[in-house]
Amino acid sequence: MSGEGKVVCVTGASGYIASWLVKQLLQLGYTVKATVRDPNDPKKTEHLLALDGAKERLEIFKASLLEEGSFDAAIDACDGVFHTASPVLLSSNVSQADVVDPALKGTLNVLRTCAKVPSIRRVVLTSSDAAVLSNGKPLTPDVTVDETWFSDPNFCEKSKLWYRLGKTLAEEAAWKFSEENRINMVAINPGMVLGPLLQPTLNASVKPILNLVKGVKIPCETYSWVDVRDVAKAHIQAFENLTACGRYCLAERVANHFGIFKILRGLYPELNPPEEYTEEKASEPTHRVSKERAQSLGITYIPLELSLKDTIESLKEKNFIIA
Ligand SMILES: NC(=O)c1ccc[n+]([C@@H]2O[C@H](COP(=O)([O-])OP(=O)(O)OC[C@H]3O[C@@H](n4cnc5c(N)ncnc54)[C@H](OP(=O)(O)O)[C@@H]3O)[C@@H](O)[C@H]2O)c1
């Protein structure tokens, strides 16, 4: 097993993506030092402690992004760090301080600790496509977004896109700090993440799928979509593959919410379409996201249809949808 004898830290381990990352790391034989804000909250820890291998190789630490030195104990003596912790608050009525400070100051807090630990071979940063494509350039069907794209903090700030601003500033600062402190860092930039949930609570990126199934009116926005299991796998490949470097965009497909509903109705014909749904809008052409670098990491992508099916079945199992 590739992780045998290796110790890694996962920050924000109770989250949607990080839970899958911890699961896959344990499956590969890694010892995982997992950070959560409240180790006494069973909603944050029970699903992790129930994973195969957890009893033998999972240790939980308390750490908070805005507390200087908070991650020292969890990162000490590690071979690698996966920094996923960051508030995922996608709605427009959150304050700048709620998302930007923990994303930016928190990332630097974690990296400052990493810089003091000589055993660390690589840091994998969970960035986002929010740090890639928020630059005001029109995303027309002839456009292919790739890793050379960077979001523009001024554009994010003017447009009050606080989550995107936080992720953009955090990734920018992380590259600068890593270069200055000779930290070997790789960034993962997923689109909107879906797929089955391990944690008991509903996370922000799966919520729109639940809304579509429940017939809640949502704006028909366009996103790139990727399965949480592929996102976790890409993090591990980025750590293990010695030649991995730079950024990796992750997107199986780009689709608007009506396009997602169209696939959902193919799987569950009884679903009622959302208000203002039209077949024409559902099939509207979109921009693309380059798959080349993700493929070089060995990511072949779970098809969106299967991700959607597994998302719905998981939401049913956890009683978010009453079948
Ligand atoms: N889901 C997506 O579509 C998507 C797409 C691209 C990138 N990402 C990135 O992936 C990462 C994980 O996202 P997710 O979707 O898995 O979200 P999630 O389920 O909401 O998990 C976020 C994690 O961050 C932790 N966190 C938030 N604020 C914190 C603070 N002040 N101190 C310490 N920990 C804090 C949370 O800890 P607690 O459990 O203690 O609350 C939680 O474990 C984030 O960096 C996000 O930006 C997500």
UniProtKB/TrEMBL annotation:
<protein>
    <recommendedName>
        <fullName>NAD-dependent epimerase/dehydratase domain-containing protein</fullName>
    </recommendedName>
</protein>
<dbReference type="InterPro" id="IPR050425">
    <property type="entry name" value="NAD(P)_dehydrat-like"/>
</dbReference>
<dbReference type="GO" id="GO:0016616">
    <property type="term" value="F:oxidoreductase activity, acting on the CH-OH group of donors, NAD or NADP as acceptor"/>
</dbReference>
<keyword id="KW-0560">Oxidoreductase</keyword>
<feature type="domain" description="NAD-dependent epimerase/dehydratase">
    <location>
        <begin position="8"/>
        <end position="241"/>
    </location>
</feature>
<comment type="similarity">
    <text>Belongs to the NAD(P)-dependent epimerase/dehydratase family. Dihydroflavonol-4-reductase subfamily.</text>
</comment>
<dbReference type="InterPro" id="IPR001509">
    <property type="entry name" value="Epimerase_deHydtase"/>
</dbReference>
<dbReference type="InterPro" id="IPR036291">
    <property type="entry name" value="NAD(P)-bd_dom_sf"/>
</dbReference>
<keyword id="KW-0521">NADP</keyword>
<dbReference type="Pfam" id="PF01370">
    <property type="entry name" value="Epimerase"/>
</dbReference>
